[in-house]
Amino acid sequence: MFWKTLQQNLQLYVDYKIEVTDILTNYTSIDEIHSYSIDESFLDITESLNFFYPEIKNRYEQMNRIALDLQREIRDKLGLYVTVGMGDNPLLAKLAMDNYAKHNDNMRALIRYEDVPNKLWTIPKMTDFWGIGKRTEKRLNKLGITSIKELATADPLLLKQKLGTIGLQHFFHANGIDESNVREKYTPKSTSFSNSQILPRDYHKQREIELVIKEMAENLAIRLRKGGKLTSNLSLYAGAASTSEYSSVKVSRNIEATQNTKELQDLAISLFREKYQGGAIRQIGISGNQLSDSSVKQLSLFESVEENHSNEKQESLQKAIDEIRETFDFLSIQKASSLSEGSRVIYRNKLIGGHAASQDKEEKDVS
């Protein structure tokens, strides 16, 4: 009976783990998620902060907002209440969760580098610090080290001599230093292209929302071609209006590397329809991540020669249109849809060449 019950609970844990991870991918790429245990994960949200919340200028306020949205989505969809630790690196985030978030009413906590003396060094039990068990505590006690503060101010050479490399690691950790990378298996992150806009009014009609998404996907494709880049990850954000009873759309998906306008438009619309539940939208953002040079693009093994040739013709046409727009004016060639109700392309490109309102960014990784 005990084993059967344990098996059932384990399967329930696994099912929830899968569903929670699916929600996490709405906030960052799957490559930015590290599963630490069956009920804990690390997320690198560096590229998501400005994408989802460009109106918030403080990085830590952005982190708190994304943590709140994540908590609410998991609660609303799965009925689970989760704690979130935030920090300038994975270690600080883990310590924030274990020692503070679990005791806070909002179940969130943050530790910045400047918080190390007040929040790390004051942890009462050494065994409450990540990586220090009773055995390690005893060895440290023999060296006269009985607190995290004493560990942080100890002689690092002595720690290495007595405990080996792990002693040096404990010294750095006690000072809040952690160079581990959530996405260790992924090399290297390049820049990302993103743009977002706050709509002039609440958009209630799905066709109007999708029209703006298509326009922004086209803008992304143009910037990719101009920069000689391909994107292999697309992120989409559609922020719900304050009057909406529905949640915002946040989704990210790995794709075959591309800079093709139609491919990006089709994918963006597909991602939106996959997550959109209804309600008014007031903000839209789109981002192309995990960039690579377009000069190294390979032909698809899953497409016929005819399909590859068709793609080449499309790309040639798109580049020709880009050149005309560059030479004359972006609005010199436009689709009829740009005259449709809800379209933003003409307005945005009349504002100082489109720069004032677009909030377009080329973002470099800072993690």
UniProtKB/TrEMBL annotation:
UmuC domain residues are 6-133
Which residues constitute the signal peptide according to the record? none
Xref: SUPFAM superfamilies: DNA/RNA polymerases, Lesion bypass DNA polymerase (Y-family), little finger domain
- Pfam families in UniProt: IMS, IMS_C, IMS_HHH
Recite the UniProt keywords alphabetically. Answer: DNA replication, DNA-directed DNA polymerase, Mutator protein, Nucleotidyltransferase, Transferase
InterPro entries linked? DNA/RNA_pol_sf, DNA_pol_Y-fam_lit_finger_sf, DNA_pol_Y-fam_little_finger, DNA_polymerase-Y, PolY_HhH_motif, Rev_trsase/Diguanyl_cyclase, UmuC
GO molecular function term, any single one: DNA-directed DNA polymerase activity
Q: Which GO terms describe its biological process?
A: DNA damage response; DNA replication
Please give the family membership noted in the entry: Belongs to the DNA polymerase type-Y family.
Q: PANTHER family in the record, alphabetically? A: DNA REPAIR POLYMERASE UMUC / TRANSFERASE FAMILY MEMBER, DNA REPAIR PROTEIN HOMOLOG YOBH
Q: What is this protein called?
A: DNA-directed DNA polymerase
Identify the species of origin.
Lactococcus lactis
